[in-house]
Amino acid sequence: MVAAGASAQVKPEDAIGYRQSVMNVVGHAFGPMISMAQGKIPYNKDVVVKNSNVLDTIIDLPWTSFAPGTEKGAPTKASMKIWSESEKFKEHADKVQQAAANLAKVAKTGDEKAVKTAIGELGKSCKSCHDDYRLKEARN
Ligand code: HEC
């Protein structure tokens, strides 16, 4: 993981805002791809190549902004378990990075079926972390 944007000097509210911003960009990049995988919109190779590259590039950014001391300070959906189970949280982060790298690679082949499978796999790794570590409602 790259220590971009996070350090001991960063204020908790800034770290929280930063990780939420990155996550929102991740969500925007992922949205059209999952819609394609689910057959809701037509498959578009160019969009998948572009969005999967964006995702692959930025998906390693948010994790360091869950550093100790950023548990609170602004409304956040981060579960406190992130800090008590930091090893497991990191495993989820590593998994999603691998899934994103895989999708970016497969996307270039244009093999629609394989691409959709890779999108589905990536979606599973988002969901499994959210199920365990993202709260339904923001807390303070
Ligand atoms: C390692 C755990 C983890 C993984 C993997 C993960 N997320 Fe998140 N995500 C979180 C946490 C925790 C938050 C809440 C952050 C906060 O509020 O401080 C969040 C927030 C978000 C948000 C902000 C929206 C909201 O209201 O909560 C979006 C969008 C999002 N994630 C999309 C994704 C997508 C898409 C993927 C997969 C490509 C993904 N996430 C992978 C942990 C994860």
What does this structure look like?
This protein is mainly α and 140 residues long. It has one domain (12-65, 76-139): Four Helix Bundle (Hemerythrin (Met), subunit A), CATH 1.20.120. It is built from 5 helices and 2 strands, in the order ααβαααβ. The chain has helices at 12-37, 45-58, 81-84, 86-109, 112-133, and strands at residues 76-78, 134-139. Strands 1-2 form a two-stranded antiparallel sheet. It is elongated, with a radius of gyration of 16 Å. It starts with 11 loop residues before the first helix and ends with a strand. Bound molecules: heme C. Residues 16, 19-20, 23-24, 26-27, 30, 76-78, 89, 92-93, 96, 122, 125-126, 129-130, 133-134 line the site of heme C.
In short:
The chain is mainly alpha-helical.
Physical arrangement of strands within the biggest beta sheet: 1-2
Rounded mean pLDDT is: 94
Distance between the termini: 27 Å
Radius of gyration, in angstroms, nearest whole number: 16 Å
Order of helices and strands: HHEHHHE
Report the sheet-strand fraction. 5-15%
The coarse overall form would be: elongated
Percentage of residues in helical conformation:
55-70%
Q: In CATH, what is the class? A: Mainly Alpha
